[in-house]
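Chain A, query sequence.
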Amino acid sequence: MQDLSPRAADLLAQRLYEAGCRHAFGMPGGEVLTLVDALEQAGVTFHLTKHENAAGFMAEAVHHRDGAPAILVATLGPGAMNGINVVANALQDRVPMIVLTGCVDADEALTYTHQVMDHAQVYRSITKGTFKLTAQGADIVADKAVSLANQPRPGPVHIDIPISVADMCVSSVKKRRLVKAAAVAPEGNCLEKARRWVADAERPIAIVGLDVLYDGSRNVVQAFLEHFGIPFVTTYKAKGVVPEDHPLCLGGAGLSPLADKHLLPLVEQADLVLCLGYDPIEMRPGWREVWDPEEKRVIDISAVINDHYMHQASLNMVADTGATLEAMAKGNPARDTWPGGEPAQVKAALAQAFPTDEEWGPAAVIAETRATMPDETLATADSGAHRILLSQMWDCSEERGLIQSSALCTMGCAVPMAIGLKLAEPDRPVISFSGDAGFLMVAGELSTAAEMGGNPIFLVFVDASLALIELKQRQRQMGNRGVDFDRHDFAAMGRAFGGNGHTVRNREELRTALNEGLKANSFTVIAAEIDRGGYDGRI
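Chain A, predicted structure.
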């Protein structure tokens, strides 16, 4: 009689479905065939990509739309190793991700060494935890992985799956689920001190970070800032958590020295700094220890204890952001802030520093694209000089309206992220911004874009150089070495993979290409040719 008990792989897949996962990405090998079958049977669609690194970024993009953990599937050995970069990115960018790798059985590994290596040892330093699936413990391992990945701060968790274990039928399964902890706010003297400091502040400023994306406090944060008239900046990952056209919003901060030249003096003038879910892992060294907590009142509300030492606070509260702000605001009257109008002056200075009316160049490409694309457009950004400029100029009206590798700053993420966004939100316009070097790293994924369908737009800044590194090279008065390469026909690449391709050299050509891309039935590659040195003085 056929055993109808679930396989261990089925229990794992069912727990992932229960966690809201509907998509998994990767490249299979014989060691993960049972896992892929189990995922599909559970209702989790497996998507074949051309490289595991790109697969992970597609998975991350889907997570940013549905909130479920991203799923990366890789076979043993080289497959597992190909995912190293994107898993390290998930750890630093606080992305919940379940990394599933196949492995040979323990007895087999004693004498068979081909492609056999210790996956857990490699992944241990770039994940929150690593497990090996067992048959009887499959459901528990799955729940531990999902729970750990989602716990503050979120991150990747690795599960190594032996071939025979995945196939093993399991009977009498008792499912166990870790109950999510309730939101907690501080009380007592700490709360009273925070309430008093907010009431006394004449020049408060807030820095809003990515914890707010995960604790559901967006509306409370906005109401708190509005009630007390507190201007704010966000990290790049938290862009749009309060719409960036809000009069109190001063935009993103942390990577642009040009923007920070205006923002950091305002922080210095503040008499109260509120760090709201602020995780400084995204910030450049210029934001390290920019205040003295002995001289300035600083309240740090974070999901985990502050052990990064990027900054110190006068009052540290490890608590839920929304619950804490509600407790601080209760019965606390509003008052006028910044009587000298300094935040408005800084906002005007930032607008002047990042003008939108240039005839051509990287800033003109961004400005024209933002003006042409619909407000509801979802965007992705690769690492490079263009990302710094884009993150200052691309206004977001919602959280995760622009996603990027903010902490690890890895190249090659924008194209696969855009593919993932289009899969998750097929009815919304999607565009990626890549430098030409970053685009070349993942050009093969254009075939994945064609196979998945939809009409994402892939915009490439073409200057045949690693622009940001070349700029730093010149700033250090070094010779031009190892940063330049040939110009290539990126539009032809788009057409070769079954999409559309345009090369543009002015605003009118760009606007036409964007409008055609929005109406197209397949993806579009737009190669925006710009002069070298176009970022000088702009970032």
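The chain is about 40% helix and 15% strand. The domain at 354-529 is CATH 3.40.50.970 (Rossmann fold).
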